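This protein record is not my work; I was only asked to verify it. The record follows directly below this note.
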Amino acid sequence: MQSGNIFSAIPQGTDKETLDVILDSGNLRIERIISGGHSTPPGQWYDQEQDEWVILLAVSAAVMFEGSSEAISLKPGDYVSIPAHVKHRVEWTERGEETIWLAVHYG
């Protein structure tokens, strides 16, 4: 058995994104992602093998999908379901605050 708190041990003022794997059972992986003013580098897209469901737990961010003309802005409680191989990127996360995501990879 494992227990914890999603909001504990949040790194402050880091210059890179932090990813913590909470659970990995082969076809299901749950991650906590901490971003502080980060975005996906220009021209880079995520193209993942598994479906992903992501919820924003704290602060704000925006996600862009390839072929879309506008990013989806997210605030706490907003979630997005991303099918496998749908190319996407993080357009921005709030500067000066730690944005907290929970990502579930499955399928």
About this structure: The longest strand covers residues 28-35. The mean pLDDT is 95. The two ends are 23 Å apart (CA to CA). Residues 32-106 form a domain with the Jelly Rolls fold (CATH 2.60.120.10).
